[in-house]
């Protein structure tokens, strides 16, 4: 909840400054860095460092690599001792941005890459279902065997063969036991 409030403040500030796209680029970069660098995540969660030390490290790490507005925001979070919320803030910022632009993030898990016509049909279905423009992230997972599992926001539409086999197995076990 707190991360969402900080994300909303960042979004409102970025809109006011007309720097939302630049900050969004930085947000996406920071999300990747946090995902791939557990040492940085550990640093952000370490409130034992003085604010001056944290700020100096942030400047050294990100000066010239992130926009000035984004670095200023990171330093603000450091002063407020809220760097541990950064991952949640970045995720919430992306969601707020998508909602504001009438976009929706869609995670599709498939056994093999979808063909162009399948992809277009799926994206049209999502757009009709949500009334928003889908932003697709496709994951290949041979374990699903076939079909597609869509995650749209907090909704999951699982049409994979793996899911159907799991349901069948549960129903068979339930029927056998009763």
Task: Tell me the layout of helices and strands.
Layout (H helix, E strand, L loop, with lengths): L1 H16 L2 H17 L1 H8 L5 H12 L5 H12 L6 H15 L2 E8 L5 H15 L2 E8 L7 E5 L2 E4 L2 H17 L1
Parallel strand pairs: 1-2
Antiparallel strand pairs: 1-3, 3-4
* Topology order in helix (H) and strand (E) letters: HHHHHHEHEEEH
Which structural class should the secondary elements be placed in? alpha+beta
Largest beta-sheet details: 4 strands, mixed
Number of domains: 2
Question: Rg from C-alpha positions?
Answer: 21 Å
Query: CATH-wise, what's the superfamily of the largest domain?
Result: N-terminal domain of the delta subunit of the F1F0-ATP synthase
CATH class of the largest domain: Mainly Alpha
CATH structural architecture of the largest domain: Orthogonal Bundle
Terminus-to-terminus distance: 45 Å
Mean pLDDT: 91
Count of DSSP-assigned helices: 8
Q: Note the beta-strand portion.
A: 5-15%
If strands are numbered along the chain, what order do they take across the biggest sheet?
Answer: 2-1-3-4
- As a percent range, the share of helical residues equals 55-70%
Describe this structure in words.
The protein is of the alpha+beta class and 178 residues long. The chain has 2 domains: 2-98, Peroxidase, domain 1 (Orthogonal Bundle); 102-177, no CATH class. The chain has helices at 2-17, 20-36, 38-45, 51-62, 68-79, 86-100, 116-130, 161-177; strands at residues 103-110, 133-140, 148-152, 155-158. A hairpin with a 2-residue loop joins β3 (148-152) and β4. α1 (2-17) packs across α6, α2 (20-36) packs across α6 and α4 (51-62) runs antiparallel to α5. The longest helix is centred in the first third of the chain and has 17 residues, at 20-36. The termini are far apart.
